[in-house]
Amino acid sequence: MTGIDLPLEPSCGSTIWCNDLYQRLAPDFRTTFLALPGAGGWQHSFEETIDLTAAKRPYGPDFAQYAEELTAEVERLVRDRRPDLLHAQHLGFGLALAFARAAGSVPLISIAHGTDVIAAAENEQARDALLEIVAASTAVAVPNAAMADRVNALTQGKFNDRLITVPWGIPVPAHPTVRPSNRWRLHLLHAGRLDPNKSTITAIEAMALTADEHHLTIIGSGSELPSLTARTIDLDLGHRIRFEPFLPREELWQRFTDFDMFLFTTKHLEAFGLAAVEAQAHGLPVIYGDLPGLRHTLGAGALAYQPGNAAALAECIDHLAHDAELRRTLGTAAADSARRHDIGTTAAHLGDLSKTVMGAAHV
To answer: What is the pLDDT, as a whole number, of residue 362?
Structure first.
């Protein structure tokens, strides 16, 4: 049994990743996925889903009550369904906290996603939730060494022996689809959740500093959209920056062929970089904020700049605009790098860890 207290929709990397992953864990594992009701229509692969009834409440004065309501729901489900194993997605979300409190004798693996670890570093309530979840877990799956270091620091090194690296992945396409162009005014893409950590503002401000009038398309939704559109107007970039709403994965993948470069502007911490790896798998080079986890994930098929530094990003864009050969080299390396991150490998690692944890629980 697992789940995320988010709507059952492909609107964020976590739900998409879970859908990819648990499809590949079958038939060895039969998964029940808990989520908030979605808009409907998503052709997901979860074998069984259950809608949560508790009304979502973020960190703040009502979060404790929300966690209690979720815990009561999960306790009933655990009692009725008798799962062999619980996977708590996110180290701090309300549902993960409910799994930790309702587990009882059922073994629990918690899985770090990134937003949870960032929240715990900034918010005492989120940090308390992370500590409780990690303490209740038999194992804590982290996607890379950088995330392990952050979790270890937040827990004062008390649970270092529980931290297990499970490399993340995507369904790698059969072959790249992007063909490099020779144009020097680039068509750039930024896609994903629009929140402060994704730092889309860096991409917008870089467009005002480039020597050439490149064009940027921003695909996604999130809390930062109003301020991003306002900043675009302030910089008089409306003719060079286009905003489009969130696209389902298959539609986004089809759009990759319209662009020369993918901008990935995360500023502080990134669990994996789902959209960036997807772009690489299709042969699209990536410019990214130089973070330890991303440096390993994106490899040679990407060019790094100082996170949050719009001038440095603009310099990278102009450099690549005038070096078509380098763009071709990066595109080839990007596709090769992405093949290291097949979701089948993720499923194999997490499946082995799950079987080990379940086996230990029955010794």
So the answer is: 62
Q: Which residues contact 288 (CB under 8 A, 6 or more apart)?
A: 263, 264, 265, 266, 273, 276, 294, 298, 302, 303, 304, 305
Which tens digits make up the pLDDT trace of 299-312? 999 999 999 999 99
User: Residue 320 is part of which domain span?
Assistant: 187-338
User: What predicted TM-score, i.e. pTM, was given to this entire model?
Assistant: 0.88
Residues 292 and 210 in one domain: yes
Q: What is the mean pLDDT of the chain?
A: 94
Q: How far apart are CA 69 and CA 331, in angstroms?
A: 49
Contact (Cβ atoms closer than 8 angstroms) between residue 10 and residue 43? no
Q: Cα Rg for the chain, rounded, in angstroms?
A: 21
Do 209 and 165 lie in a common domain? no
Query: Do 130 and 201 sit in the same domain of this protein?
Result: no
Number of domains in the chain: 2
149 and 191 share a domain? no
* DSSP state letters, 119-166: HHHH-HHHHHHHHHHHHH-SEEEESSHHHHHHHHHHTTTTTGGGEEE-
The total number of residues shown for the chain amounts to: 363
Spatial contact of 341 and 275, defined as CB atoms under 8 Å apart: no
CATH number where 278 lies: 3.40.50.2000
Q: Are residues 136 and 242 in the same domain?
A: no
For 335-363, letters b (16+ CB in 10 Å) and e give: bbbbeebbbebbbbbbbebbeebbeeeee
Tokens 């060494």, residue located: 145
Residue 101 C-alpha from the chain's centroid: 25
Specify if 40 maps to a domain.
Answer: yes
Q: How far apart are CA 47 and CA 19, in angstroms?
A: 10
**C-alpha span between 143 and 197 (Å, rounded):** 18
